[in-house]
Amino acid sequence: MTAAKWRRAMNTGVVSAVPRLLPSAGGSAAPTAAPAPDPYADSNAPRWLKFLWRNLSPRHVFTLAFVLLLPLIVSPFIIYQVASQALIFGLIALSLTFLAGYGGMVSLAQMSVAGMAGYALAVLGVSGTETSLGWPWGVVVPFALFIAVLCSTLIGWLSVRTDGIYTIMITLAIGVAFYYLVLQNYTVFNGFQGFQKVYPPQIYGVNLSDPVPFYFLCLFWAMAGYFLIQWLVRTPFGIALQGTRDNARRMSSLGYNVTAHRVAAYAVSGLLAGVGGVLLVWYNGLISPGSVGTGWLINLLVIAVLGGMKHPIGAFLGAIVFILLQTFAIDVIDRERFNLVIGGVFLSIVLFSPDGLLGLWAKLRMRFGPSQVITSTTRRHL
Amino acid sequence: MKNTKRIWIRSILCAAAMASLNGIAFGQGQPVKIGLLATLEGPFAAGGADGMRGAELAVKQRGGVVAGRKIEIIKASSDAKPDVAVNATRKLVEQDKVDIMVGPLSGGEGIAVKDYSKTQPQVTFINGGSGAQATTLVNTSSNFFRFNTEGAQWMVGLGKAAMDKGYKRTMIIAEDYAFPYSQVQGFMAEYCRLGGKVPVKAWVPLGGKDYSSVIATIPKDVDALLVILGGADAVNFLTQYENSGGDKPMMGGSITVSQDVLNYKGKRRDSLVGTISAGPLADSFDGADWKAFVADYQRNYPVSAGGYPSPSLFAFVYYVNMKAALDGLAAVNGDLSGGQAKYRDALQKMVLKTPTGDVRLDSNRQAIGTTFVTEVVKDSRGNLSTKVSRKVDNIDQTLGIKPEDFKMGSRDVPACP
Q: Average of pLDDT values for A53-58?
């Protein structure tokens, strides 16, 4: 997709799909609305408290309470297989959402980056295979993340000079090459069989592979990733990145180094994907070439598109829907046809709402919700 | 606060969805729930579907009722990847609350599900079709049973047949993963003991297309090739070997000499006659139980309804394992109480009547059973088919080697250059 198309898509779409990209800007976001007076301006409360007061709405509290209390409501199975898995894939998809939604670069190699972190964890750490080096997890995990960031940066450096479909092709090629590398290399990656018995560590007597502790581990990192992106897209870097998405040539003539911004975006996405990859290996207890095959490269794109790329939460919504379908579709329909349900849901969501679930929600609000002022969120930053 | 309302509704919807999912799981009733896992996606999708048919056939033969308790089958699918298999199994066990679990289909899946079974001691796991040695040799699980023999056991008898044919030196060409390792071991354990030599083993990637480099390394002084490749790979190899002018006689692994190979139309077609191979079943076996099983399969799953002309390997092993699950249930009169202790005891002690003969379990809950050595023959109309040349009974998992001397098959084990 060209920069011009991105710009059009981002401006003509249902704009309210982005629920307040700039909460910190308060009422001053829309050019037409007068700035709301800050009721806490005179207070002596610490800054972080004022920040919270200004930005916290009941929905935040409710969502936080919901995700924290979830283990009390549902069974360990749902906690582990649905919630934890959705958070992990949400986190990896978030790295793609960040690249594609904010940087305009659709990378299919995000699952491979996650896989690189996962393989690093298995090769260097403890596993059931003799070739693993057995380093302690406190060393291996940072190292795995470092490798993910490094590889992602290299992938970015290779692919940022291209645009649209060429980026997709290059990143797909890298992903497939990595798949065949781990499939056919036996000395390091143990080929077809991969690595078994890669379990999360025990910390202070808490076994992180139990459903509830593992859920909170995933929740912590998913929220960390979510808020990192939320914060990052409001920083000068994030705004410049969105500028390069909307019009790279103009940003360049304004003096911004477009390539550097894009490569930096790849590095950030590599960190997110790396954390997701480590969690994914711990979740499965194993990693094999199947985890980084073409099927999963595409699935990740499906998750991101399903949820919508205009807001970080879309990645997690998409992941929840995807995992629910994957787990329960076989109960709804004949056993040989259950992939049809997954495909059908995906097609119908994309058909009726090109912006995914976020766009669907925005459409419903447009029709049934209270009337609202339409403003361009993408223009707010500029 | 326009967003407040939205998030409220969103969260409520989400909570409702979660709650309704949770409501699906209800307590144990009178029926016995059996989870059935096979690969309905991925490379073994056709085999998985036939495995499901085999398992269903075992349930049908009992009319869906054992000891007055209705049998309720809950199915799940994987795609031959271990992580997917564990996810599907976890759903059956923890969400659908099955009492007995039958599956999975492929080797890597079997090891992963066996590891998972340790965390679920309340459920009895019975293998489906998977044939990796490690599942019941290393780090065994007390509630995982396997009533089918595995890859190494399936090749017993081939070594002797090769020596009988005068093949003193053999080159092995096999795919590079656990199942062919086992197959190679099953062959070599016997072959090397009888004085055969294997100077070269070529490990090729799964799904490879180009075998020219392997063909170039075939030494002049070997008498035969043992080819352990899956269906399409075997045909690819055969075509390229013919084009390069090769003329060594072939031996096949348990899944190599299949219908696609026998239907091969190349010039060397006639040279396939005499190809020997070994496996847990033989289409042309004339035992009465086998014939009854085949007839029953053909009646329930005619070719017009998607069945095969004769039950495949996966239909057979799933049938055997599901039959074991139901026979065990009948033996304890449907009593699964006390953490299924009585049921597991009955499984352990059972002598299972299978279409190819009796099967017992060893102390690792692994089947001791029968293998057939087959040979490709040409019938009067020129069609190739297999005939049974020998039947070997009572093969245990260590292939008659003392357990302490037995080493699991790998790329380099065993060796006799």
A: 77
* Three-state secondary structure string covering B84-107: HHHHHHHHHHHHCCCCEEECCCCH
Its domain, for residue A193, covers 75-380
Higher pLDDT, A181 or A368: A181
How many whole angstroms separate alpha carbon A93 and alpha carbon A77?
Answer: 23
Predicted pLDDT at A54: 74
Kindly tell me if the per-residue pLDDT of A186 is higher than 80.
yes
Which of B14, B15, B83 lies at the smallest CB-CB distance from A286?
Answer: B83
Task: Report the C-alpha gap between A376 and A13 in whole angstroms.
Answer: 10
Render the burial of A326-344: b for 16+ CB within 10 Å, e for the rest.
bbbbbbeeebbebbebbee
Q: State the complex-level ipTM.
A: 0.77
Confidence of residue A370 (pLDDT cuts 50, 70, 90): low
pTM score of the predicted model: 0.82
The answer to whether position A1 is within a domain reads no
| Cα B347 from Cα B290, distance rounded (Å) | 22
Name residues 19-78 of chain A within 8 A of B (Cβ). Answer: 19-20, 57-60, 62-63, 66, 70, 73-78
Residue A105 placed within a domain:
yes
Contacts of B90 in chain A (CB under 8 A): 77, 80-81
pLDDT at res. B43? 76
Q: What is the pLDDT of residue A336?
A: 62
CATH 3.40.50.2300 fits B32-148+288-363, yes or no: yes
CATH topology of B32-148+288-363 equal to that of B153-279+379-395? yes
* Torsions phi, psi for B185 (to 5 deg): -65, -45
For the ranges A288-302, B138-152, B228-242, B342-356, the lowest mean pLDDT is seen at: B228-242
Distance from CA of A4 to the nearest CA of B (A): 30
Name the minimum distance, in Å, from the CA of B299 to any CA of chain A.
21
CATH of B153-279+379-395, one of 3.30.70.600, 3.20.20.70, 3.40.50.2300, 3.30.450.30: 3.40.50.2300
Residue-wise pLDDT tens digits, B358-371: 999 999 999 999 99
Q: How many domains does chain A have?
A: 1
Query: Closest approach of chain A CAs to the CA of B14, in angstroms?
Result: 10
Q: Flag whether A341 is in a domain.
A: yes
pLDDT band for A380, please (50, 70, 90 cuts). very low
pLDDT of residue A13: 43
Number of Cα atoms under 13 Å in the Cβ half of residue A182: 26
Q: What strand order describes the sheet that includes B144-145?
A: B65-66, B69-78, B32-39, B100-102, B124-126, B144-145
